[in-house]
Design goal:
The protein has 127 residues and is mainly beta. The protein has no helices and eleven strands. Strands 2, 4, 5, 6, 9, 10 and 11 form a seven-stranded mixed beta sheet that branches. The chain has a four-stranded antiparallel beta sheet with strand order 1-3-8-7, with no helix packed on it.
Length: 127
């Protein structure tokens, strides 16, 4: 099992940047594909970005492509989400998620594919 703790959320003006971190503990971090999801009030929890266990392959939602960057440091058991050019519509609770790696399958993008979740960190973008 793996435990996930997000940090780095906060209040930022539109056009600004934030970097979220997700620290993992428990079993070997490098055995997991990692992802970020977000949930705005009254809405579903949506996929934002994912990164393969080696940190090379990534996937992004169209709404954040070109603005957000997901990365990981397996030596530090941490995954990051660099968020640039933030917009008010990026306001949400951001969740970190983990899934045991499966070398034969595409990088997961669906919420139900992930087994472990953090408690979330609030990101608020003011206009």
């Amino acid at each position: 099992q793996v435990q996930l703790v997000e940090s780095g959320g906060g209040l930022v003006q539109a056009g600004g940047s934030l970097r979220l971190s997700c620290a993992a503990s428990g079993r070997t971090f490098a055995m997991y594909d990692m992802a970020w999801f977000r949930q705005a009030p009254g809405k579903e929890r949506d996929f934002v970005a994912a990164v393969r266990w080696m940190g090379i392959a990534t996937s992004y939602a169209d709404s954040v492509k070109g603005r957000f960057i997901i990365s990981r440091d397996n030596a530090k058991n941490t995954v990051y989400l660099q968020m640039n050019s933030l917009k008010p519509e990026d306001t949400a609770v951001y969740y970190c998620a983990a899934k045991p790696r499966n070398l034969g399958s595409p990088l997961p993008r669906l919420r139900d594919e992930y087994d472990y979740w953090g408690q979330g960190t609030q990101v608020t973008v003011s206009s």
